[in-house]
Amino acid sequence: MKSLVIIFGILLQFTAAVKNPIISGWNPDAAILRVGSNYFVATSSFVYFPGIPIYKSKDLANWELYSHALNTPEHVQLYGTPTGAGAWAPSLSFINGRYYLASMTRWTYDPFARVWPRVFFSSSEDLKTWTEPTWCEPWGIDPELFHDANTGKTYLNLMAPNNNEQRLWGIYQCEVSLTTGNCVGEYISLWNGTIPQNSSTRAEGPKMFFKDKYYYLLIAEGGTDELHRATIARSKSPKGPWTPAPNNPLIYNGAFGFKNLTVQSTGHATFVESAEGDWYASFLARRNINGSSPLGREAFLTTVKWENGWPIVNDGKPILLSENVGNTPEAKPRATSFTDTFRGKALDPSWYQLRIPYTNNYRLGNTGKDKKDLGIAGHQKPGGVTLYPNVFTLSDRDTPAALFRKQKSLNMTFSATLLPTDGSLGYRQSVGISAYLSEFQHQDVGIRGCVNQTGMCFYSNLIRNGTTTTKQIPLNSTTIPSGVTLQIRAEPLKYTLGYQIAGQKEVWMDEIESKWLAFGPAGTFVFEGANWALFGSGNGNPWPFNAPEVGFLEVKETYFEENIPDYDRWD
Ligand SMILES: *[C@@H]1O[C@H](CO)[C@@H](O)[C@H](O)[C@H]1NC(C)=O
Ligand SMILES: *[C@@H]1O[C@H](CO)[C@@H](O)[C@H](O)[C@H]1NC(C)=O
Ligand SMILES: *[C@@H]1O[C@H](CO)[C@@H](O)[C@H](O)[C@H]1NC(C)=O
Ligand SMILES: *[C@@H]1O[C@H](CO)[C@@H](O)[C@H](O)[C@H]1NC(C)=O
Ligand SMILES: *[C@@H]1O[C@H](CO)[C@@H](O)[C@H](O)[C@H]1NC(C)=O
Ligand SMILES: *[C@@H]1O[C@H](CO)[C@@H](O)[C@H](O)[C@H]1NC(C)=O
Ligand SMILES: *[C@@H]1O[C@H](CO)[C@@H](O)[C@H](O)[C@H]1NC(C)=O
Ligand SMILES: *[C@@H]1O[C@H](CO)[C@@H](O)[C@H](O)[C@H]1NC(C)=O
């Protein structure tokens, strides 16, 4: 047995073990940090609360959701914030024994409002309890705190405009006070990247580090979509001047044709050195499915090697899903399911709300009027989650009574069993589940007071480019009975929506191509990916005081194999 272990150990040294994406489901701008034997990755959260998730790993291959940095309304203001704005592009630093998160909040895209993104940092001893934000002087995006161990100085690096008229974006810097957030050294332009500068080419996401005799400035360029890439420069000083690498761009799958490789929009990288002295890069990428990416931008990892003081990422090869990378333990097989019966003291941290939940939108448990039917006899605490529906719907730029989870697989089902009601839903009252991308794009199935007829109906609402297609089927019952499950089957190319009544065959009401859950309508910015939602709504009216309580007894996700090809060919 012992010899077997040793042989296995030797084999492991040659086993490339990181599977991409390392964190599936939308998690853009993955910024990695190692402290001791722990790795942490922080990602963007936009209009979701709590904000800025932090994932933890011991081995780079297996990641778990560890905490959120913006976990009270004082940490992040998102009232009325449109999809795609909100909290972005975090970076993590470890300075004098404290963790620092630098990030930004953007409240709107409206150019007439002249509201610009603001940068801040906060700090923590344990990554769980965070100080309130310290707001920095410059405006811009993608801030980073770089602590120069050679001098003890801390710099704020960020993407900022040259001025507020031309708005040519580049990487800017000042030495910063960790107490006030103010600049304590001159504010300078560091580098404008490698692409000829105009108002849409963007040098962003600065990540600075010192290795051997050079300071390195790693950035993202080319905008958010197909031209996205990672480039680097080095200097003898953290203030420059900067010499670009001879092998830029370091990461750029678009170089192989935008329609060829599945993995696209590669960039926004952060480097990390393992305790063993191996280097890796975290970065973002999309998994394109016939040209669109319903899961949005996910967190990826690859190797970094050094030659003549310059990094070579992934051996200079394109990023492929089929290739595992690195020299780490094997990734554990992925879970095949997730079940939530809502019996914990609090919601599982993988659930989110939209914007700032300024009203209480749910409670754990249910009235348990029908305990026998709910199948919870013998349990200490009734399970389930009861929603407090309000006037808002998933189409509003507000906080509907809705709970969200990231869609983590391109091949899975999401199902939710409704709590039985003691009465009927009336005109405008609805309860359901959704495949949700934004206030413009969500595909719903649920139960509502029927439209144009009396009684309650199952209904589906599909949104294609602003046009809604609705179907309804009478429920033939004056209450929602026990054992009604709503379900959505997600496949790479489509979502299928339906329901199942206990003991009966499942009914699929409608289906929609997954491309309708990717990218926003013209003129909007949607930087997130697909979520699953549970919702209840008064659809513009308050939920009547005497209307039945609605909610869900149990949520279940089942994950199937994801055989996503390296080349984006689906015909
Ligand atoms: C970057 O571009 C801005 C605007 O054109 C310019 O003012 C600045 O000097 C440039 N910075 C560097 C380091 O070249
Ligand atoms: C900026 O430059 C990029 C590439 O160099 C080009 O594709 C784009 O059209 C330019 N945008 C503007 C606003 O000039
Ligand atoms: C990728 O696509 C481009 C055009 O879209 C084509 O010219 C090129 O040959 C393709 N490359 C590969 C490796 O398939
Ligand atoms: C309800 O009736 C209106 C008017 O006839 C019609 O336009 C609409 O499509 C109907 N809605 C449903 C869900 O049947
Ligand atoms: C969606 O609608 C917009 C505006 O009407 C149009 O320009 C665009 O081509 C449409 N997109 C698709 C995929 O149909
Ligand atoms: C309710 O009855 C109608 C008419 O028989 C039928 O078409 C429909 O499928 C029934 N609804 C359910 C949920 O079984
Ligand atoms: C999705 O899962 C189903 C059921 O296991 C399987 O038949 C199918 O090949 C999978 N699709 C992909 C793209 O992996
Ligand atoms: C892929 O996308 C193209 C262009 O939108 C479309 O014509 C084709 O039907 C799609 N293929 C599949 C398998 O969905």
Automatic annotation (TrEMBL):
<feature type="active site" description="Proton acceptor">
    <location>
        <position position="29"/>
    </location>
</feature>
<feature type="site" description="Important for catalytic activity, responsible for pKa modulation of the active site Glu and correct orientation of both the proton donor and substrate">
    <location>
        <position position="142"/>
    </location>
</feature>
<protein>
    <recommendedName>
        <fullName>Beta-xylosidase C-terminal Concanavalin A-like domain-containing protein</fullName>
    </recommendedName>
</protein>
<dbReference type="InterPro" id="IPR006710">
    <property type="entry name" value="Glyco_hydro_43"/>
</dbReference>
<dbReference type="Pfam" id="PF17851">
    <property type="entry name" value="GH43_C2"/>
</dbReference>
<dbReference type="GO" id="GO:0005975">
    <property type="term" value="P:carbohydrate metabolic process"/>
</dbReference>
<feature type="domain" description="Beta-xylosidase C-terminal Concanavalin A-like">
    <location>
        <begin position="340"/>
        <end position="540"/>
    </location>
</feature>
<dbReference type="GO" id="GO:0004553">
    <property type="term" value="F:hydrolase activity, hydrolyzing O-glycosyl compounds"/>
</dbReference>
<keyword id="KW-0732">Signal</keyword>
<feature type="signal peptide">
    <location>
        <begin position="1"/>
        <end position="17"/>
    </location>
</feature>
<feature type="active site" description="Proton donor">
    <location>
        <position position="204"/>
    </location>
</feature>
<dbReference type="InterPro" id="IPR023296">
    <property type="entry name" value="Glyco_hydro_beta-prop_sf"/>
</dbReference>
<dbReference type="Pfam" id="PF04616">
    <property type="entry name" value="Glyco_hydro_43"/>
</dbReference>
<dbReference type="InterPro" id="IPR051795">
    <property type="entry name" value="Glycosyl_Hydrlase_43"/>
</dbReference>
<keyword id="KW-0378">Hydrolase</keyword>
<keyword id="KW-0326">Glycosidase</keyword>
<dbReference type="InterPro" id="IPR041542">
    <property type="entry name" value="GH43_C2"/>
</dbReference>
<comment type="similarity">
    <text>Belongs to the glycosyl hydrolase 43 family.</text>
</comment>
<dbReference type="InterPro" id="IPR013320">
    <property type="entry name" value="ConA-like_dom_sf"/>
</dbReference>
